[in-house]
Specification:
By secondary structure, the chain is mostly helical. The chain has a single domain, classed as Fic-like fold, CATH 1.10.3290.10. Strands 1-2 form a two-stranded antiparallel sheet. A hairpin with a 2-residue loop joins β1 and β2. α1 runs parallel beside α5, α3 runs antiparallel to α4 and α6 runs antiparallel to α7. The radius of gyration is 17 Å and the shape is globular.
C-alpha cells in the first residue's frame, strides 16, 4: 500500500510559499524565451516547490503516479478530489504524453499569432490565451500526476501560459483562489469540461488588471 501524501507539513508552509514565489518568478523572467511546454518542465517546478520540505517519500517530489516498479511507492498510487477520481495511475504516463503534445501544438498556433513582445489586445486573442490557461490547468488537475501538489502545479501552468503572452500572472498559487466558483469549475475540469474555468479565469484576470490600474 503506497505511503499517502495528502497534506503539507505545517512546519514547511513558509518554505513552500517562498519556493512557489521563486518558481513563478523564474517563469515570468523566462516568458520571452518561449520555452517549449513539457511534462519535464512541470516535474522540475514540483521538485523546486518542495525543496527543503518534509515529504513522506523523497521521490514524491517531481515523480509521477504510474505503474513503474522503479518507483514502488507511486506504483498504483490512486487519488481523488472529493468524489472525483484522478486518472488511474496506470494511464497517467500516456495521458501526460497526450497533454504535452496538445500543449506544444496549442502554443505553436498562438506563437504564430502573438509574436514575442506582443500582448493580446483583441477580445478573441485574450479569450484564446485564457482558454489555453484553463485547459492546461484543468487537464493537469484531471490527470493529477503527482501524489500531492497538483493544484498549485496546475496554477503554475495557467500563469505560464498567461505570461508567455504578456498577460500578468493572475492565478494565486497558495492558497488557491477564493470563493466557490474556482472550486466548482475544478470539479468540472476533473470530468474534462474546462468551460467554467475559462469564465473563472476571465474574472480573475479582470480583477488583476483592475488592481493594476488602481495602484
Amino acid at each position: 500500500m503506497p505511503v499517502p501524501w495528502n497534506e503539507d507539513d505545517p512546519r514547511d508552509l513558509t518554505v513552500i510559499e517562498e519556493n512557489l514565489r521563486r518558481v513563478l518568478g523564474n517563469i515570468v523572467r523566462r516568458a520571452s524565451e518561449r520555452d517549449p511546454p513539457s511534462v519535464t518542465m512541470a516535474q522540475n517546478w514540483h521538485r523546486r516547490i518542495y525543496r527543503g520540505a518534509r515529504i513522506p517519500v523523497p521521490y514524491y517530489a517531481g515523480e509521477i503516479r504510474d505503474s513503474d516498479p522503479e518507483l514502488p511507492e507511486l506504483f498504483g498510487y490512486e487519488v481523488a478530489v472529493g468524489s472525483s477520481p484522478g486518472v488511474p495511475s496506470r494511464h497517467v504516463p500516456a495521458q501526460l504524453e497526450s497533454f504535452e503534445r496538445f500543449m506544444v501544438e496549442a502554443v505553436g498556433r498562438l506563437d504564430s499569432i502573438l509574436r514575442v513582445g506582443d500582448r493580446p489586445s483583441e477580445a478573441d486573442a485574450v479569450h484564446s490565451v485564457l482558454t489555453l490557461c484553463a485547459i492546461s490547468h484543468g487537464e493537469w488537475v484531471r490527470i493529477h500526476p503527482f501524489a500531492n501538489g497538483n493544484g498549485r502545479t496546475a496554477r503554475l501552468w495557467a500563469n505560464w501560459c498567461a505570461v508567455r503572452y504578456r498577460l500578468p500572472p493572475f492565478v494565486r498559487l497558495r492558497p488557491r483562489p477564493a470563493g466557490d466558483a474556482y472550486g466548482l469549475a475544478g470539479i468540472d475540469s476533473m470530468r474534462g469540461d474546462h468551460r467554467e474555468m475559462v469564465i473563472v479565469f476571465v474574472d480573475l484576470l479582470t480583477r488583476r488588471l483592475s488592481r493594476s490600474v488602481s495602484q
